[in-house]
Design brief:
This is NERD domain-containing protein. This protein has helices at residues 2-20, 31-47, 114-131, 166-170, 197-208, 235-240, and strands at 50-59, 64-73, 78-83, 88-92, 98-101, 109-111, 141-146, 152-154, 163-164, 214-218, 222-232, 249-256, 266-273, 287-292, 296-301, 308-311, 315-319. It is α+β, with helices and mostly antiparallel strands.
């Protein structure tokens, strides 16, 4: 029996390697990233405005960088959103820290106070924006913690008002004059006028050019945030891709050319030259190169010590931070 099991595992690995190669996307867990992008997409649909995902903002007080999951900006207000993709029973301690039990992990998972962390993220972001020459009105930024996982459970309902539990999240509705509703305190509720258009444009420009994690969109609508390191593959393919570097390119899109001859099939890589004056290049400015589908992207995921390899054939698009 054990012989059959071992042979089956060997066959499966050979089968997977033959058809998919050693692509880490098959094994890398993207659920936390997927949850963040799902929350961002829903917020944008509900409240309009502009959503920024995966900011990596310098913190002058600590000399390090602060990770910010989501920033939602409308003409009335803005919010820093921390996404906690927690499954299991959550309890809150007196110091504000959380403990999660009964989820996918066999042991309890403890985390610092997410509300305090979100508040600090908002403070760091405000300081960064002001350093770039834009004064933020008092109360313009709010901060929230969203728990979008349907497997979230709690023993009691005494979460701070800044926390949006799963049940609240699925019931979230837009309000005509406010970005966020119900249990989310609006910084501009009470009839304050919209920010001047020039301020709004400046703020969006600063956020669109702020340091961010690089982004991979891979097959099955999954996402990975982290740092693009390099391409690996045949020499002629690497030479064809030599112009794709973060100083020159903001985004690339992968398109399949042929389904025949799997080992030697080609992919079309479309990339847009970086334009620091606007959000991107016009469609007519996109350039293209053709490379083997076996070419790999070497990528360091956020909060991971493992360097992963993703075949271009598994990637839909890649965005590079300036």
């Amino acid at each position: 029996m054990w012989v059959e099991i071992i042979c089956g595992l060997v066959f499966y690995r050979l089968f997977r390697r033959f058809f998919y190669g050693s692509d880490d996307v098959l094994e890398f867990e993207t659920s936390d990233f997927d949850a963040t992008f799902s929350v961002a997409n829903r917020l944008e649909k509900l409240y309009g405005g502009k959503v920024y995902v995966g900011l990596h903002i310098p913190d002058v007080n600590t000399g390090s960088r602060q990770n910010i999951d989501i920033v939602l900006v409308t003409k009335r207000e803005a919010a820093v959103i921390s996404v906690q993709n927690l499954a299991g029973f959550i309890s809150i301690h007196e110091d504000g820290s959380w403990t999660c039990e009964g989820g996918s992990s066999q042991s309890a998972v403890c985390s610092p106070d997410p509300v305090s962390e979100a508040k600090n993220q908002a403070s760091v972001l405000e300081s960064y924006i002001e350093q770039r020459g834009v004064a933020i009105p008092e109360g313009y930024f709010s901060y929230k913690v969203v728990i979008p996982n349907p497997k979230f459970r709690t023993f009691y309902n005494n979460f701070p008002s800044e926390v949006i539990t799963y049940d609240q999240w699925v019931q979230l509705k837009p309000e005509p004059r406010s970005m966020l509703s119900g249990w989310i305190k609006s910084a501009f509720r009470g009839g304050k006028k919209e920010m001047q258009e020039s301020f709004h444009q400046q703020l969006n420009f600063i956020l669109s050019t702020a340091p961010m994690w690089d982004r991979l969109e891979v097959k099955d609508n999954k996402y990975v945030l982290g740092e693009f390191l390099e391409f690996k593959g045949k020499q002629e393919d690497i030479l064809a891709l030599r112009n794709i570097k973060r100083s020159k390119v903001s985004r690339l899109v992968i398109q399949k050319i042929s389904m025949f001859g799997l080992a030697h099939s080609k992919l079309q890589v479309l990339y847009s030259p970086r334009d620091y004056r606007s959000g991107g290049a016009l469609a007519s400015e996109w350039k293209e190169v053709s490379v083997r589908s076996s070419t790999e992207v070497i990528f360091q995921p956020q909060n991971s010590t493992k360097v992963c390899k993703f075949k271009l054939s598994s990637i839909m698009s890649m965005s590079l931070s300036a």
